[in-house]
Amino acid sequence: MTEDGKVVLIEKAVRTVPYGFLGVLFSVYLSQLGLDAFLIGAVLALTVASSAIYTLVASVFADLLGRRRTLIFFALTDAVAGALLFSSNSLWAPVAAGIIGNMTVGAGEVGPFLTLEQAILPGASDTRRRTLGFSVYNLVGYVSSSAGALLVGLPQFITPGTGGYRPLFMAYLASGLLGAYLYSRLSIEVEKEKTASPSIGVLSEASKPVVRKLSALFALDSFGGGFIGISILSYYFYEKYSLQLSSLGVLFAGTQIVTAISFLVAERIARQIGLIKTMVYTHIPSNLLLAIIPFVSSAPIAIGLLLSRQSLSQMDVPTRQSYLMSVVPETDRTPAAGFTNVSRSIAQTFSPSIAGYTIATLWLGSPFVIAGGLKLVYDLSLYKIFHRLKPPQEA
Q1: What is the pLDDT at residue 156?
Q2: DSSP secondary structure string for all residues of 211-229
Q3: Burial letters 307-320, b for 16+ CB under 10 A, else e
Q4: Phi, psi of 229 (to 5 degrees)
Q5: Which of 127, 254, 338, 362 has the most other CB atoms within 10 Å of its CB?
Q6: CB-side neighbour CA atoms (13 Å) of 248
Q7: Which pLDDT belongs to residue 307?
Q8: Is-contact 269 134, C-beta < 8 A?
Q9: Signed CA dihedral, 345, 347, 350, 352: sign only
Q10: At what angle do helices 316-327 and 245-273 cross, to 10 degrees?
Q11: If one looks up domain 3-188+204-390 in CATH, what number appears?
Q12: pTM for the whole structure
């Protein structure tokens, strides 16, 4: 991997440590500020919606303004969000921070960072090991996120209260500033290759049908995933089993580590059976496990099911990213990554508020069943539509 690739990996770690503790903490923090389940879902929806807007802006304008410059800007928005959380424990602060920043509170990272780094990585790694490159990229993110989740369990954060979280919010601020510095170290090689075509943020005619279909499918998957994002899961275990932040931190650190290990396994499986089959064959059993979780009454069994589910559920992430970057030309990578991530972000915007509504009016475990069903539809549709379209390295 080139020096630019190494910078991307380091910044991925710097960025996702705060995302790890914010994912566990954010919904509990909002609850401690007095919000009910529906309003918590609405705030989470606003957070995801702002990320979708940022992703759209990045996918359309980043190649014109420069990928490096765009990444620096969005890193600074994280710093501003951290400053807001640090400066006040009033309700307006987390709401404003969720809108301004790019914090990940859903099911996996979405947003402008993912879009641009996804476009940069293929040029920073060997084509024959592209899936491995994306696996390592996601592994770094999940290991770092697990470290962030563990921070929530430190003694000073165990006692309920909103004032004691300020060191974590300061760490979020610092990660944004450090991220801006790291992105400034990227070379000119990360920018889009100049071509005779003046179009910016526009897909070629050959790529449009593929990206449109994948965007629709990824949106369905993300819509389902939004029902069981880390913040929703944290709230579920907090309410049903009375797990406190110390236990939640350990739990979600464990899920992140299990997920991180699965990325390396996914790359090995993909070399044997192909990217699409790896995505589908690992995703279906994970969704069946997900749907079972709310029907058990024991916390250890529910945790065991969640960990088993996590060992399979994210194997489609590096394979999905590798597949998309393989079936479109280099000049289409930024808009392709951007449009698919925008579709995922927009779809996920609605899920938390709906999940909050179903929890408040139907049943605490309803998001698990809804998410599992939607994701199964995604798996079967993906295989039916794309199992014949092989990436070049599989031809």
Answers
A1: 61
A2: HHHHHHHHHHHHHHHGGG-
A3: bbbbbbbbbbbbbb
A4: -65, 170
A5: 338
A6: 28
A7: 92
A8: no
A9: negative
A10: 50
A11: 1.20.1250.20
A12: 0.71
**Which stretches of the chain drop beneath a pLDDT of 50?**
160, 195-200
Cβ contacts of 86-89, under 8 Å, gap ≥ 24:
86/166, 86/169, 86/170, 86/172, 86/173, 89/33, 89/162, 89/163
For CA atoms 68, 72, 75, 81, the dihedral sign is: negative
Closest CA to 279 of 326, 242, 314, 238: 314
Q: Which two tokens stand for residue 291?
A: 């749907």
In this structure, what token pair is assigned to residue 21? 């503790």
Residue boundaries of the structural domains of the chain: 3-188+204-390
Instruction: Give me 328's structure tokens.
Output: 């479109």
pLDDT of residue 196: 42
Nearest to 162 by CA among 85, 251, 83: 85
Provide the terminal-to-terminal Cα distance of the chain, rounded to the nearest Å. 24
* Distance set, CA 94 to CA 28, 90, 210 (Å): 12, 8, 38
CA-CA-CA-CA torsion for 53, 56, 62, 68, nearest 10 degrees? 50
Question: Could you write out the DSSP letters of every residue in 50-98?
Answer: HHHHHHHHHHHHHHHH-HHHHHHHHHHHHHHHHHHHHH--STHHHHHHH
Please give the pLDDT value at position 256. Answer: 78
